[in-house]
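Q: I'm writing a short explainer about Metal-binding protein for a general audience and would like to include a description of its predicted shape. Could you first generate the structure from this sequence?
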Amino acid sequence: ALDRHRDAAEAAAAAASAARTPRIAPATAYALGVLHADQRLEVEAARFAFQRLWQQHAADAAS
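A: Of course. Here's the predicted structure. Afterward I'll give you a sentence or two in plain language.
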């Protein structure tokens, strides 16, 4: 989950950075925006997955 989070966060940051390039074509800017949004969703999914794993681990350790 942590690797997935890191990869998605880095991809989102790269897409956002590329979208700020001067004189970028509108279609390219749109595609980068879609990619950025998708990767941000992946970041949130990875956070949720990690939280569930952590809670399960904590429950197992308490048993």
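A: For your explainer, you could say: The two ends are 24 Å apart (CA to CA).
Q: Perfect, that's easy to follow.
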